[in-house]
Amino acid sequence: MLRSRTVLIVVLFVLTSIAVVAGYILWARYLPGYRSECLIECVSNIPEAELTFEQERLKQEEHERFVLTQAILLKSPGILSEALKVRAVRDTNWWEKIQAKRVKQENEHLIQLTEELHAAPVRGTNFLRVSMVCRAKEDPAVIVNEVVRQWYDFVNRRAAEEFASKSLETAQTELEELEARIEERRQNLRILAGRLPAGARQAPGSNVVAQQVVQYGEQVASLSLELAQLEQYRTIYNDPETVAVTAEDRAMVEQDPQVAQLAQAVFLYEQQRVADEKVFGADHSVLRALDAQLEAAEDKLANLRIEKLRERREDIREATNTAYLNTQHALFLAQENLARAEAALQDQEQLLFNYLKLEEELAQDEEYRIELDTYIKSLGRVVRQQSAVKINIAQPAIDPLERHSPNIVVVPLGFFVALLVSIGIGLGLEVIDTSVRTLQDIGRHVGVAMLGAIPDTNDEEVAIQRVETAVLDSPRSMVAEAYRRIWTNLQFSAPAEQRRSLLVTSPRAEEGATTVACNLAVAMAQRNRRVLLIDANFRRPRLQKLFNQTDKQGLSNVLIGSASLQSCVAQSGVASLDVLGSGPIPPNPVELLAGEVCEKLIAEAVAQYDQVIIDTAPLLLASDALTLSSAADGVVLVLRAKRSTRGIARRARTLLGDVGAHLFGAVLNAAQVTRGGYFREQLRAYYDYQADADEAQEVEAKDM
Q1: Across the beta sheet with 450-455, what order do the strands follow?
Q2: Is residue 395 part of a domain?
Q3: Partner residues linked to 635 by β-bridges
Q4: From the centroid of its chain, how far is CA 593?
Q5: Is residue 576 within 8 Å of 529, Cβ to Cβ?
Q6: Pairing mode of beta strands 634-640, 663-671
Q7: Is residue 364 one of the residues assigned to a domain?
Q8: pLDDT of 675 over the 50 cut
Q9: Shared domain check, 702 and 660
């Protein structure tokens, strides 16, 4: 990119460099600047401490702020207005130049002086620098010294009174307000201390409210667990049918007095039966009576056990419900107690936070009161000593010894900026230029194989009468050599049988497709190949004029069947090169070229000639080339440098790919060649050497 724009960048750099030098010269001659400055030493404004020989000093930050305040005071309108009233200032060229302006604003001198006078602290020191730049060499020292004198008198006359007295009054008022605020905060602190419970300001373990919160929380958790268990018991005992009889239930039923008495009677009946059976036998009436009594007692015992078990379950259910209700009530009370305790703890924490915050603010106020009291005592000494500001003019302004502006450093800096601007403009133009200009552009942006580049005839040192036949008219030119190289590259693009017929076209008109077709045909014919050049550009035929073909019959006559190929082919004047003109222009070129007759014609021409080259209309303007591309072996796409854009080239490649055409490659026409390049020098030296060798051979032949 830089190489392609080298000339533009160099020209822009030279022009801008000349502008920089000219601007520097004009600036130094007509608008020079002379600078003069004054240094003022500013000492601490805190007086000596009582009963000591030491002098207190301001902190670094406070001192810088103090010096900056003096700089602002020096440039105040009051000081500058007093300086402008002095006769010495009014006699300067600076004053007369402003006075001579036709259009003057009110207080024009004051406005200009405010803008041009500079006052700033020298960082890291106690000095204040006051400077000014003027066009006249003797003006800045006069103006700076006068402004500094006015400021010095003002400071010595009124600084102590205005600074110390007003500050003392303000500080005393602030001290009174501070003491009232401290007393109010102490009273509020006592009130908060009375509201806080015992142990609230001590360790967390001694806080009674916090202990209650923990205790109530544990109680709520325990009651919640107990209530859950009772809920399970209620669910079980509310449905007696689902309750299984346990050993404990049986034991409790057997311990009932009635059940125990009846069980004892049943046992006695059983013992009596065993004894009577031994005495009376098994079927005795006594035993039958005893069995009836035993059976009645056992039935009564079973019913009694069932009744007692039912009574026990009912008692358990009532006890469980009662315990559940009691536990639920106890849980409700515990939750209320916990909520009250948490609310009390939150209020206590807020009170404690307010107490601690107020206690901290009180400590800060008391500390600030001590500092303010010390400051008031110092201001009192300042008022008594009448010396709040100590300044010393260390170096008054003098006439400048050399010119301040412009500085010679501006010139190399301007050269550097000019170089950056020139490169930026060149690269910008290169970026926004979307045209195809080099072989690399075709390979990078179009994606087509490159067959070669044809130099622009304006860069050719050999005179070329007609560019369409440059290979014939100027065989030793760079243009002719470029066409020979293209033919050589074509030979390696495909086997000989697959490149017998070539279609030469371009995306748009005036890009050199006809020129490339003619020169390629001549280059092939010069290598003893029988070549037929066909003009299939019915939109704008040119081959008849280029080769002086007078026969009016041509391609259109052959396609419509009114003539044969042999009768329409004419000699071109170049050995081994025949030309088939377009003939009369048909009304429907596309339909004529799309028929089978055209394919047979090309096949017949391929059979009779070694190479057939077809010149067609532009791709994007007519569909003739797309129609013929399927009949030819391949296509050569011609792009003109700086005219064909990348988008147009990609569009042409896409159209050829859509119809299945075989694209051998692209030719870049009218490419720029660097003047005096290596290839040009070598080519010229080669042909000069060959001419000398031919002359020497002719001389030797004559001598012989």
Answers
A1: 450-455, 663-671, 634-640, 501-505, 611-615, 531-535, 577-580, 570-571
A2: no
A3: 503, 663
A4: 56
A5: yes
A6: parallel
A7: yes
A8: no
A9: no
